[in-house]
Amino acid sequence: MIDFHSHIIWDIDDGSKDFRMSSDMIENSICQNVQCICATPHFIIDEQEIDKTVYHEKLNALKESYSNKINILSGIEVYINPNIPKYYKEKKIWGINDSRYVLIELPMRDYPIYTKDVFYELIILGAKPIIAHPERNLKIQQNMNLLTDLLDEGALAQMNAGSLTGMFGNHVKEFAEKLIRTNRIHMIGSDGHNNRSRKTDMLSAYETVGKLNKDLYQWMEENTNKIVKDIDITPLKIVEDKEKKFNILNLFNRKK
Ligand SMILES: [Fe+2]
Residue 243: pLDDT band by 50, 70, 90 thresholds? Predict the structure, then answer.
């Protein structure tokens, strides 16, 4: 199991506070059967840009401490900005394990008009953008086509484990389940920020993926390791939501 999204690097964003907390978070990942965790701190262009040297010093310290127990990989969670393609071209931002797969965060309650252009430009440059936790974005919750358009363009999507376990409420949980059932998600991340309220838990959510959609679970088992190795992947086709059909059928049967 790979955790594609975490804030385990200490004192760099709103995630881990110190080395001790980072260690706790990683120990928890190991207990959760995570074999590989991506350290993806927030990167906000012009506001909170991460010094690559400092980042790698801290990443390497964690890697060395846990070299035999878990694989810790580089990455960032870059906040949507029209200059992302420029930054990618200039190597000021980096993908998961320095691959073409770049994790991109949207605002929680907005979907900027330049989003699709940024994704398109990145794909032209050879990058593979990954939308971080789309299930938590208000505009995507209201109009799933906003997500589908990006996926059709070639983007991938990462879901937060907590969304499937109800950490962000029932509404998000139900929407998250729908995205899993319809193959609109490609990887899971803990988005762990600390060792208390937002931990690096993964196991329960990953098992839920298996219960909701066996094909997708199998696809994740076979393909997520390719992503961290920078190998090309072919996502499953988006399918209709069978659960919705089932509900309509139930309603029909109840009326008879
Ligand atoms: Fe995050």
Answer: confident
DSSP string, the chain: -EE--B--STTSSSS--SHHHHHHHHHHHHHTT-SEEE---EEBTTTBPPPHHHHHHHHHHHHHHTTTT-EEE---EEEP-TTHHHHHHTTSS--GGGSSEEEEEPPSS---TTHHHHHHHHHHTT-EEEEE-GGG-HHHHH-THHHHHHHHHT-EEEEEHHHHHTTT-HHHHHHHHHHHHTT---EEE--B-SSSSS----HHHHHHHHHH-HHHHHHHHHHHHHHHTT----PPPP---HHHHHHHHHHHHHH-
Whether 248 has a pLDDT exceeding 90, the answer reads no
How remote is the CA of residue 165 from the centroid of ligand 1, in Å? 17
Whole-number Å distance, alpha carbon 188 to ligand 1 midpoint, is 12
The structural domains of the chain, with segments of one domain joined by +, span 2-255
- The per-residue pLDDT for 167 is 96
Q: How far is the CA of 202 from the centre of ligand 1 (A)?
A: 14
Q: Is the pLDDT of residue 179 over 80?
A: yes
Q: How many residues does the chain have?
A: 256
Phi, psi of 238 (to 5 degrees): -65, 135
250 CA distance to ligand 1 middle (Å) = 38
Provide the CATH number for the domain formed by 2-255 in this structure: 3.20.20.140
